[in-house]
Design brief:
Blueprint: E1 2-7, E2 11-15, E3 24-28, E4 56-61
Antiparallel strand pairs: 1-4, 2-3
Length: about 70
């Protein structure tokens, strides 16, 4: 299987919930723990009723087994 990921964000968080058989992929504008990093890289404060949107595309293709 070939997987291609395209994202507007510079960071993606990959995790698995305890006891679950699937993986989760979460696009993020900031690195983990950015609130506690110098300059808070990637964090942005939104005003009341202000919105932001992130786009991520995941494509999975089956590949022939060469064995």
């Amino acid at each position: 299987m070939a997987i291609t990921i395209s994202s507007q964000t510079p960071w993606l968080m990959l995790f698995r919930m305890s006891g679950e058989p699937r993986l989760c992929l979460e696009p993020q504008r900031h690195p983990v723990n950015a609130r506690h990093q110098a300059g808070q890289p990637g964090l942005a404060a939104l005003a009341l009723d202000e919105r932001t949107r992130l786009a991520t595309e995941i494509a999975a293709e089956s590949t022939a087994n060469s064995c």
